Amino acid sequence: MRSSKIVLKIVRFMLSLLCVVLIAVGLVCAGKWAYGFGYRVFTENPVQNAPGTDKSITISEDMSAKDMGNKLKEEGLIRDANLFVAQLKLSSYADKIKAGTYILNTSMTAKEMMQIMAAEEETTETSETE
Predict the structure, then answer these.
(1) What is the DSSP annotation of 55-117?
(2) At the topology level of CATH, where does 54-118 sit?
(3) Phi/psi-derived region of residue 121, left when phi > 0, alpha when psi is between -120 and 50, beta in every other case
(4) Cβ contacts of 63 within 8 Å, gap of 6 or more
(5) CB 3.0 to 4.6 Å from 72: which of 23, 77, 96, 105, for a disulfide?
(6) Is the pTM of this model over 0.70?
(7) pLDDT in tens, 41-99
C-alpha cells in the first residue's frame, strides 16, 4: 500500500515536470517566432535584387490593409501579407494609401511601395513672369 502511494507521487511529479517542460518549450518557440516576425517588420528585404520585374497593381478605395497585402503577395511583390499589414500599420503611411493603379517593382521594399502608393498627386502650376 505504501509503495503504491510512492509510485503515484512519482507519476504526479513526472507529469507536472512534463507539463512545465512543454510550457517552457512552447514559450521559447512562441518567443522565437515573435522576435523573428518583429525583426522582419523593420528589415525585410525585397523579393528580388535589382533590376527586378515591374508589376501593375490596382488599389481600390474599399481595400483593407490585409486585402492590399494579399494582392501584393499574389503579384509576387512581397513574401508575407501579414508582415505587410504590420509594416503598414506601424508606418506613417497607414492612412495615406490612395486608390489607383501603380507600377511597382519586385526589387522594392514594402516601405518603398507604400511611399509610392501614398504619394500625393503632383500639381504643376505654370506661372508666367514678365
Answers:
(1) EEEEE-TT--HHHHHHHHHHTTS-S-HHHHHHHHHHSTTTTT---EEEEEETTS-HHHHHHHH
(2) Dna Ligase; domain 1 (3.30.1490)
(3) beta
(4) 71, 99
(5) 77
(6) yes
(7) 988 899 988 898 999 999 998 999 999 999 999 999 999 999 999 999 999 888 899 99
